[in-house]
Amino acid sequence: MAGTTALALRGITKTFGAVAALTEVDLEVGRGEVVAVVGDNGAGKSTLVKILAGVHAPDSGTIVAGDREVTIPTPAAAHQLGIATVFQDLALCENLDVVENLFLGHEVRRLRLDEVAMEVRSWELLRQLSAKIPSVRIPVASLSGGQRQTVAIARSLLADPQVVVLDEPTAALGVAQTAEVLNLIERLRERGLGVIMISHNMADVQAVADTVAVLRLGRNNGVFPAREVSTEDLIAAITGADDNVVAQRAQRSNERALS
Amino acid sequence: MTDIQARPTDRLDERLRHDDGLRGQAAAWGDRLRSGDLGALPVVAGLVVIWGVFQALNPIFLSSANLVNLTMESVPVGVLALGVVCVLLVGQIDLSVGSVSGLAAAITAVLFVDQGLPWWIAVLAAVAAGCVIGWVYAQVFTRLGVPTFVITLAGLLGFLGLQLYVLGAQGSINLPFDSALVDFAQLAFVPPWLSYVLVVLAAGGLFAAGARRAAARRKAGLSARSVRGLVVRSVAVLAGVGAITAYLNQTRGVGWMFVLFLVLVLVLHYVLTRTSFGRSFHAVGGNAEAARRAGINVRTVYTSALVLCTTFAAVGGILAAARLAAVNQSTGGGDVNLNAIAAAVIGGTSLFGGRGTAFSALLGILVIQSISSGLTLLNLDSSFRFMVTAAVLLLAVALDSVARRSRASHGKA
């Protein structure tokens, strides 16, 4: 199964009034593959996430899920196609506990809640993710940022998705918590899911991604294998120039080495 | 390793402290208190203090006759407070419960007495009017985005006006004493034998429900309350409620109207805690945007909460009219409005949304009626009642705010 395409975007264009947010963007993620999407502010990353989540519809271009062409007009449609999106703000209810948050809107037995079944399923899910959450009966407010990210990701997995889209999963997290979330992304890959991870952090990208897709001003600006590409090359692709400080220093040290 | 495997699924994490048995549960309870998760403790403590003070000042206060009166007087505003709990839970407010209750009372009286319709048609019409008012509030709130504070402030004045208009020039209608309504609110008491049967059924039901849940949890490999803990809880309820019932039975006993109130509290408690409908109330009050993204129809939740509130207000108004056997221009006016909101808040429902239980209406209204009854027994007029109730309300909200801050610093929402 690994290697076959889970989701592919081809020639996606989206304009807001006179602004072209995305122009002819291609993106492909295979099963068991982690694709990082990087880019500067305004590169179109968020627009891409919203198209995948069914919040915005693209003006043109095609989306292929599995082996058929699809459209994603609504968030519910994204859900049905097996595309789960975890937004940056996580959208958890802090006054509810972990189980209540995981099953919010999809409770088991609506008129007489089956708390036992929901709690058992929650533990199963968290165990599969090797999540470090001590109790599922504590309010989300008492969890750390990394644990909350875990809960949000676990919730997206309840519907058995094919592709998980993570929007800046490690922004605002500490070192240990970031490591926890990166471990989690590894787990998703092991389960054979396609993962699209939007990130600003080059270290995180190079730690877990298989492929790095760079967006610049709403266009593709290169797709790199994550294990081989250097940070300088990525930054050059993101900024679209080699006249930035990182590239200059690299160039200077190269010249020094040569001379 | 065997030790780990023998533990229930939800107790495996080594960071958890294991509060097993009665002593462990007591320790866990102490921890919750210190972190600001006060539950019903402040209001129960407040009730004990209030009762102690008034009993010291006037020995009639804790007499059976006065307590029977207290339970009956609590019901109309208590039902209003149940509705207020619903709107506070979704993070909104209804300032017009008093006016809506007055209007419902006026509609009932006019249809029943002036028009000569059967009492149940008059009651249904008044309750329907309550529903419609809540629905209109909800439309203005969800479609136009006017804050509920402003909508219901307009309702406060507008429905008072409508109440005066409905009552007409005479301004006061007496309900006949031999009608079913007045009989229910003033004279209908549970026969003593039946009251004890109900208490035993309640304690037994509590034990059966607890035991069934514990068995299901144990079967699924989760931790569960011990049978001993369940027995202790049920026996405590049996003894406590049984003693109160026996004391009330020394005079008139337990009124059917109070039983109706308890049933409403229990039904609302079930709906709020054991159904996905109730869970959506908590979710919307905690984080409306998160609830929307989880697929909850937030507009429906707001509409339900506002309709529930005005419907409870209408029911409360009808009961108030029946209790007084009359409807006049001041029915539902004065301090009724603020008492209903104060009862919900004093009982522990947060003004900030997302936290609260149906029982807070019961506990809160007992506090407010105790103050009212105690001051009346001391021959102090409403000037003192207003001031004392205001102080208690302020204290309750201050306690809520402090507890909320403490919860935040202890990492509990």
Question: Could you please describe the fold and organization of this structure?
Answer:
The complex is a heterodimer of chains A (259) and B (413). With 259 residues, chain A is of the alpha/beta class. Chain A has a domain at 5-91 and 162-228: Rossmann fold (3-Layer(aba) Sandwich), CATH 3.40.50. Chain A is 36% helix and 25% strand. Chain A is built from nine helices and ten strands. Chain A has a six-stranded mixed beta sheet, sandwiched between helices. In chain A, helix 5 (145-157) packs parallel to helix 6 (175-190). The longest helix of chain A has 16 residues, at 175-190. The radius of gyration of chain A is 20 Å and the shape is globular. The model of chain A has no long low-confidence stretch (mean pLDDT 87). With 413 residues, chain B is mainly α. Chain B is built from 17 helices and two strands. The longest helix of chain B has 28 residues, at 192-219. The mean pLDDT of chain B is 90. At the A-B interface, helix 4 of A face helix 9, helix 12 and helix 13 of B.
